[in-house]
Amino acid sequence: MAAYISRYIMYIPSAFREDDPEKLVAFMQAHSFATLVSTTDGLPVASHIPLVVTVQDNVVKLTSHLAKQNPQWQAFGKHESLAIFTGAHAYISPSLYEKRENVPTWNYVAVHAYGIPQIITRAGSPELMDKMMEKTIDTYESEYKAQWHDLSDSYREGMMSGIVGFEMIVTRLQGKYKLSQNRSHTERHNVAHALLESTDPAAREVGEMMQQLEP
Asked: How many domains does the structure of the chain reveal?
């Protein structure tokens, strides 16, 4: 896969930095309901949307759509946007550390993907719009495809005319896996064990990710 990691914007201490594009893409695909941030008239705007993450010929591409009434799409094709992918997170108590002089923190994973979204419209690119919709359905509920095609033409066309699709080729990826890598082996064990014993499913997921880091 191409080397996307380059200029960093998200603050990532070296202990938490993840540069493996395949690992980052896998995380994005597993946590594909993301936050897309763009800039309009000098102000940041954001939408929370599902993103289809694909890789072809070492190129990572994000596809999705916005409601036509959502003004964010008007920034597409002009400036770089940022897609933020996050997963489970967990509070880490200082009581799990060996020394008393410590403070609470949070463990989590986040991936940032940058690129310039290119607009796809029903009027301008009907084939690309159909492809975008088919790919979205295949990703999230392939069984719905038969129902989608069985809808009346007027209803389906009305829905498609009310959205703006886009494709965003990812030019930069940043990965932050903050999973207590900067702590001692004993402290990492204490944290992971506590998370795995938690009643919170998200905390248990973070504990599992921490276990995967252990040799």
From this structure: 1
Structural domain containing residue 52:
14-207
Question: Cβ contacts of residue 162 below 8 Å, gap of 6+?
Answer: 67, 68, 69
CA neighbor of 188 nearest in space, from 167, 164, 165, 212: 212
CB 195 within 8 A of CB 203: yes
Q: Is residue 19 part of a domain?
A: yes
Interacting residues of 213 by C-beta distance below 8 A, sequence separation 6+? 177, 179, 181
pLDDT for residue 99 is more than 70: yes
Please name every residue paired with 64 in a beta bridge, in sequence order, or none if there are none: 166
Q: Residue 53: which CATH number? A: 2.30.110.10
What letter would DSSP give residue 19? -
Q: Name the pTM for this structure.
A: 0.92
